[in-house]
């Protein structure tokens, strides 16, 4: 399980427009954004890694703060090397997985429409709702829309929710499937629309579309107890551990 997830992370980062490989690391860079949640690296599972490799990784970021996300069992000695190089742990998360047999699809709450965005207006509204839900500005740039379009072209699933009055209530995405695996991410519901069941409906809609496209293993990470419960109700179960670590 861990190896499948880590290999999928590597494959996803290779789809970034400015991705590079630095020794045993893949850097998923996108020069169109400064977001550290998009611009990060991950190790090739099972690769031998040295302090010189870590130094090369830092250089390869080209002045950006070097940051990594990875399944810990796939590079068990890497954390020590990174700490020795001045990195600091951001988070240690459990990831959860869902299979076609465990997925439970809840009904869409009354008064909402859950659907795949097609137009630029839909994408703009969705991204703005996600940004605001995560504490950012309620806006979306042309680069944001282009990034979502590019991910669609690679096979990513995107789902948004819209209230009856036309307001975009939230959304979520997936990574492009790789070897039957895809990450579900960015699940967000705006403050006025929470606790109605939208988070579960969005998550289930993305996951079911992935399974319909041939994915057999979907995974995600929960940011807190509330989201953990939402994902468990949809059919996700804890399966492994990941590390977020960076040097700022």
TrEMBL record:
Pfam family, one: FR47
Recorded superkingdom: Bacteria
InterPro entries listed in its UniProt record: Acyl_CoA_acyltransferase, GCN5-like_dom, GNAT_dom
Protein name: N-acetyltransferase domain-containing protein
UniProt domain N-acetyltransferase: residue ranges: 113-248
Signal peptide: none
């Amino acid at each position: 399980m861990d190896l499948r997830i880590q290999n999928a992370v590597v494959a996803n980062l290779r789809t970034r427009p400015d991705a590079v490989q630095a020794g045993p690391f893949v850097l998923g860079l996108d020069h169109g954004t400064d977001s550290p949640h998009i611009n990060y690296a991950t190790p090739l599972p099972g690769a031998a890694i040295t302090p010189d490799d870590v130094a090369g990784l830092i250089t390869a970021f080209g002045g950006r703060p070097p940051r990594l996300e990875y399944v810990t069992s796939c590079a068990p000695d890497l954390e020590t090397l990174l700490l020795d190089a001045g990195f600091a742990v951001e988070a240690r998360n459990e990831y959860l997985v869902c299979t076609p047999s465990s997925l439970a699809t809840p009904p869409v709450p009354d008064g909402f429409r859950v659907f795949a965005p097609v137009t630029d207006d839909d994408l703009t509204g969705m991204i703005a709702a996600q940004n605001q839900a995560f504490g950012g500005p309620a806006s979306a740039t042309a680069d944001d829309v282009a990034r979502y379009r590019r991910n669609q072209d690679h096979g990513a699933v995107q789902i948004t929710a819209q209230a009856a009055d036309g307001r975009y209530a939230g959304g979520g995405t997936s990574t492009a499937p790789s070897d039957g695996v895809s990450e579900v991410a960015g699940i967000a519901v705006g403050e006025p629309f929470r606790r109605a069941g939208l988070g579960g409906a969005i998550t289930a809609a993305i996951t079911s579309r992935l399974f319909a496209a041939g994915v057999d293993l979907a995974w995600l990470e929960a940011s807190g107890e509330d989201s953990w419960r939402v994902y468990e109700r949809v059919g996700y179960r804890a399966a492994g551990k990941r590390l977020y670590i960076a040097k700022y």
